[in-house]
């Protein structure tokens, strides 16, 4: 028998034995709520996050951009190093650098997992890092902790 959980503000979740969590795939964002911690607390976190998702996501994207902008501009540059006509003075001046605003606008939220450690989000990188996913970690109150690829 399939186990279901309905969270009125989000929708119907289906239990995944493999991941020990309730999963919701009906929205553009995949939601996962772990049962390995206080499920009641995790549901409350999910409800609050869902009702404030746009504001949370904008703030998260800003924090992720601030955290990863140097990595992007120093190691995933937008120019061809082997181009004989490359203006290295322009490179040094940051002409080819991605701005924090451009970075934040490029990434897209794909997954939200609420677990015993807090909130984990996965973002599509908008080709900033060659198609790698961005992993962002937040505490249970939604405070940004760290991001990596």
Count of helical segments? 4
What does the radius of gyration come to? 19 Å
Largest sheet: 8 strands, mixed
Order of helices and strands: EEEEHHHHEEEE
Number of strands: 8
Q: In percent terms, what proportion of residues is strand?
A: 25-35%
Strand order of the largest sheet: 1-2-3-4-5-6-7-8
Condensed summary:
Helices cover 32% and strands 30% of the residues.
Helix-strand blueprint:
Layout: E1 4-7, E2 11-16, E3 21-24, E4 30-34, H1 39-51, H2 53-75, H3 88-92, H4 100-106, E5 108-115, E6 118-124, E7 133-138, E8 144-148
Parallel strand pairs: 4-5
Antiparallel strand pairs: 1-2, 2-3, 3-4, 5-6, 6-7, 7-8
Q: Can you offer a commentary on this structure?
A:
There is one protein chain. With 149 residues, the protein is α+β, with helices and mostly antiparallel strands. The chain contains four helices and eight strands. It has helices at 39-51, 53-75, 88-92, 100-106, and strands spanning 4-7, 11-16, 21-24, 30-34, 108-115, 118-124, 133-138, 144-148. Strands 1-2-3-4-5-6-7-8 form an eight-stranded mixed β-sheet, covered by helices on one side. The mean pLDDT is 91.
